[in-house]
Each structure stands twice: as structure tokens, then as C-alpha cells.
Amino acid sequence: MATKREPIHGQWSGRLAFILAATGSAVGLGNIWKFPYIAGENGGGAFVLIYLLCIAVIGIPIMMAEVMLGRRGRRSPINTMRHLAGEENASPHWQWLGWAGVLAGFLILSYYSVIAGWALAYVFRAGSGLFTGLTADGVQSIFSNLVSEPERLLAWHTLFMVMTMIVVARGVRSGLEKAVRLLMPALFVLLVILVGYAWNSGSFEQGVAFLFQPDFSKITADGVLIAMGHAFFTLSLGMGAIMVYGSYLPDRISIAKTSIAVSLMDTLVALMAGMAIFPIVFANGLEPGAGPGLIFQTLPIAFGHMPYGAFFGMLFFVLLVFAAWSSAISLIEPAVAWLVENRSMTRVNASVLAGIATWSFGLLTVFSFNIWSGFKPLADKTLFDLLDYLTANIMLPLGGLLIALFAAWKMSRESSVDELAMGERFWYPLWRILVRYITPIGVTIVFLHAIGII
After folding, report:
1. Alpha-carbon torsion (173, 176, 181, 182), positive or negative
2. Where are the domains of the chain?
């Protein structure tokens, strides 16, 4: 049995802190922006049921594996995988799994920050009553004006990156933990308020029925694959964030229980977001399958025509900012941890360097919506489209697949039994079967679907 390593960046104060942090990483734009519209596009309740099954079979086993690797290595993902490969007599090339996770987090944050900047801008637009009484064309014009001006996008992108790096620079206890202890309860309170608002919209029952009453005639093979892919993506797996957060997890805390708690809370947020959004959509005669524009182009129409819409619209976009902020700090943390470990940098200097690098790369996304919008180097995709496709459809599924393979096939049974501490009678064998056979097949199918092979 390997000697337990001590964390060099600090630890979470306890189980709740890790659950809040990991949930903050998992809860992001994907839950509040993406989940409602893909559920709307794929038939509502039946899609939700398949999504929940995929969370249980694919999401939770890989999350447990990634947390386990992180806590076993107690370093940044790169150094964790290098140490564990040596410990388990595996190829040193496994450290490239760590590099891929850090790179994925860096690339995702570079464009994630720009989208989060939209949410920041909409907080002030909604709060000022700008959407009041506007038609669809009016709301579309506001959105087009925002993304077509690089100076505006750059300003909001910069502000969001500064917010992110201030938190990360303060460290595990003083920065990350304090932030999630504030952001996550605030996010849940805002969601409850917005669900209450939707309750009085006049179409709450219709919205809930759409979300929870399965109609399997509306499910297609493509919808099943989308549910599988989103179940994987929504938990922040394969991008180094959960691994580095796991490295700060105290030894006494159950990996299985915390992983299940994080998955349940993440799913709860997605469902509550649907309960807040769909009744408002139906009450205003809007289309639930409105696609990516649901949040920034469809909902503002609804808020603009509802009593107290300016106030509740502002609250909604504050919620979106909080969700994005809690995810952003986890995306950059693996790179910051590596700089501290390998370049002997202070945490502040590492945060500034990582932040500037991410901000600079984000300019590709900023310009892809305006001055470079006509530049489509591959498959008629802009630079933003390519970054989104590369990370979500290729890097993350491959990262998750490799995590499962290392945890189940390269890591010794003794090591995983020791780290998971689940006993060997039922739960550990179940996890091992899932992560050895079922989960890799599921992730492989997601990957092949994403790249258009199936």
C-alpha cells in the first residue's frame, strides 16, 4: 500500500466544503443555459428520465474515479498522473492525461468567460428595464449589438476573468472555499425565488408536465446520445477540475457519498432551472425548443412582458453569473496548481499568469462573433464553434474514458479499495464493474456520436 501523500495546496475544511466546491464546478452554464433548451428540443420528460439514468451509470462512476485519482496523488492533475503512473508501474505517458485535463480547462474557460460576460451585461440590461415591452426583433437587436462590438465583449470578458482570478489567487480555504460557501447557497436561494415566480406565471403545471411527464414517442436515438453526452459534460468530468478538487479532499471523507451528493445537487439545479424557465416560456407563448438563444434571446422577451419582469430578469442573470463564476474558478485551478508546484511561483503570481494567458486566448472567441465572424477555417465553424466542439466533443469524452481506464485497469485493486473505502461486498464491485465495462462503452458511444461516426 502506498504511503498517503500530504496535500501541498491546503485542504477543504470538511465534506460540505468539497460538496459545495465540486457542485459549484459542475453547476454552470450547462445546467441553466444548456440543459433547459436541449430538454426542450428533445421532448422534455422522456429526455430528462434518460438523462438521470445516464448520470447514475456514467457520471457518478467517473466522478468517483476522478476524485479518487486526485486524492491519491494530492497534486495538480499533471503531477498526480505522473506520480500514480509510477506508483502503479504504468507507463509514464499517463501523465498526458493530466496535461489534457489542464489544457481542456484552459480552453473551455477562454470561451466560457466570454459567454459569462454576456450574462454580466444582461444583469444590467434587465435591471434597467431595457427589455420591458420589447418585441422579439427588439431583443434580437440588443443581443446582436452586444456581440457585434468587440470592445463591449472585451470589457465584459475582462471583468469576468478578473473576478475569477481574484478568487483563485486567495487559495483553497481563503479563496475557493469562501467563494463557494457564498455563491452556492446564493444560487439555490435565487433558483427558489425564480421557481416561486414561475409558480405564479399561470403556466406552472404545463411547464412541470413538460419537464416530468415522459412521452417516449418524442425520443429519438439522437436524443438518447445527447442525454448521455450532457450527463457526462454537466459534471465537469475530464477537464482536471474534479481531480484537483479531489486532491484537496481530507482522507476521512467518503468519496462515494460526496460524489453522489454532488451529482444529485447538480441535477437538482438543472431541474429547478427547467421549472423556473419553462412555465415562463409557456405563459408567453414562446417555443421551449428555442435552442441556444433560449436564455439570451427568448427569455428576455418573457421578462419584458411580465409583472416585475425587470427585477426577476435581473435576478435570473445574476443566477447565471454566479453559476458561471463557481465553474470558472475550478477550470483555471489545475493550471494554477501546476505553476505553483513546477515553477516555484506564488499563488498570486500563478493566478495572474494563468489569468492573462486565458484572457488572451479568449480574444479568439471575442472576435469570432464580430470582426472574424466570416473566418470559418473548418467545416463552416467559427473559432468559437471549433473550440466548443474540440473541448466538449473530443477532449472531455477522451479524458473521461482514460480516467475510467486508468482507475479500473491500471490502478491496483488494493489501491482503489483503500482510497474508496466502500468495503468489498457490494458497492465496490458494482463501481468496479461500471467503471471497467459499462462506463467506458457509454463514453465511447458519446465520443463517436459527437464526432459524427454514429
Report:
1. positive
2. 15-450
